[in-house]
Design a protein that fits this description.
single chain; 161 residues; mainly alpha; 3 domains; elongated
Length: 161
């Protein structure tokens, strides 16, 4: 800054002290001497864990945006269990499932229940009959006609829902 504006470095420090007040900065040697090697290694491990957690949160938000069309700043608490399960399934190749579950505040049993629900579709075989009936009737049947047609043609009785 001093070179850029062609002023004395002392002037910069004077202005800083005048505006902010005197800043007490510890000397570099004092910081290093106060921490032992074990404490430094502990600090490094803690920072690595924090970095991994933040990286996972970032990827979770990106997947939520990509898969669920959610905003990037979405809060994890506002996601449904089904949405959380979809995100975990997408990221399980990169991270441990247990750590993803912890970050998303999802219980392990809930995750496996949702996985089972996503894989199982009790109306999968009936959907083909519904599509065939709908398409063969010029795509104009409503739910009442569709229910009657399925009952008559295929002897399938299901709810209108």
């Amino acid at each position: 800054m001093a070179d850029k504006y062609d002023i004395n470095r002392g002037t910069l420090y004077y202005w800083q002290n005048k505006l902010v007040g005197e800043v007490m900065k510890p000397k570099k040697n004092e910081i290093i001497k106060s921490l032992t090697k074990d404490e430094l290694l502990e600090e490094i491990e803690k920072l690595k864990k924090e970095h991994l957690k933040l990286e996972m949160e970032n990827k979770i938000l990106k997947k939520a945006n990509e898969l669920l069309k959610k905003e990037i700043g979405t809060d994890f608490n506002h996601l449904t269990n089904k949405e959380k399960t979809i995100i975990i399934s997408a990221l399980q190749t990169d991270y441990k499932i247990s750590s993803l579950i912890n970050i998303l505040n999802l219980k392990k049993s809930t995750y496996y229940y949702e996985i089972k629900r996503l894989k199982y579709d009790k109306y999968a075989n009936i959907r083909t009959y519904i599509k065939n009936t709908f398409n063969s009737n010029f795509s104009c049947y409503g739910y009442r006609r569709m229910k009657k047609a399925l009952a008559i043609e295929y002897n399938i009785n299901i709810s209108e829902k």
